[in-house]
User: What shape does this take?
Amino acid sequence: MRPFSPLSSLPRPYRTAEAYHPAFARLLRTCPPRFHALQAARLALLPPPEQEDVIARNSQALFLKLTPSLPPTHRERGAMLEEAFRPLLLTATEYLETMPALTLDMAPKAAQQIVQAYVAVHWARGAQAAAMALYNAPA
Assistant: This one.
């Protein structure tokens, strides 16, 4: 169980988890809040991670740059985009599943796992937005 934080109940600066596919929504619901990521970064002696929207924007821009030309049919386009997006989703899921609970006396390596999970989820969020934009783009 995660420690209580008064900031955990604040609204997130992006769409709620219910607006996404169930597997992706689970990532967003289990993502550590920024407050925890900042505490973990301090414990791991890392620089503070970027804001959620900055991470997502950077990911979206990179995903758009790295995506080759898309096939004209939506079925083929969807398969190609899913193949490109799936590794990001799996990486974020793995980081969340292995992430320890935040404690004030945790080892730097364990604290780093929290920061990695936070960044991976928001990186996947940006890539998901790019994939959906490309899927819905005119052929």
